[in-house]
Specification:
2 domains, five-stranded mixed sheet, 9 strands, about 30% helix
């Protein structure tokens, strides 16, 4: 038995938007159509007996309770906006196929900045890293202490 007292124990952070016990099986989200079956969310055809519900991702989007914000900026962005947005949408599609609750909630564009709000922090990180890998520039990841929230900033002049 290990009685070490020098290790860090991460405190459990309750996410009110995700609790397996809340959903009967099978259930289907009446907004996006994701199915909760065998304890996980999947993109599949809903069984005829599926109960209607609103999934955690759609509830977060409705409540504007985002898990991540990705801010893209700089002259390079302005010159390559369409190309970068296509990369972002392709990355979201890959992520949604693996993790149906990881989604882009909103994309706000102006001349020299794009702000993307996501349902959870994992997809925010993946989007920022994909843009950085493809186009270099500077990448900053700032996790909010004590919460499941990530602010990603990417910039290239």
């Amino acid at each position: 038995m290990n009685n070490r007292k020098d290790r860090m124990i991460e405190e459990y952070i309750h996410d009110p938007y995700f609790s397996k016990e809340k959903y009967e099986e099978p259930s289907v989200c009446e907004i996006c159509g994701v199915v909760f079956h065998d304890g996980v969310f999947k993109w599949e055809e809903a069984p005829k007996n599926a109960k209607k519900m609103v999934c955690p991702a759609c509830r977060r989007i409705q409540d504007k309770y985002y898990g991540g914000v990705v801010e893209l900026s700089g002259a390079f962005l302005k010159a390559h906006k369409e190309e970068i947005l296509n990369l972002i949408k392709n990355e979201e599609e890959k992520e949604k196929n693996l993790r149906p609750l990881e989604r882009i909630a909103t994309i706000e564009e102006n001349d020299d900045k794009i702000t993307i709000k996501t349902t959870y922090e994992h997809i925010a990180r993946r989007l920022g890293e994909a843009v950085h890998k493809a186009y270099k520039g500077s990448l900053e990841l700032n996790y909010q202490s004590g919460a499941h929230f990530l602010r990603v900033k990417w910039h290239r002049d």
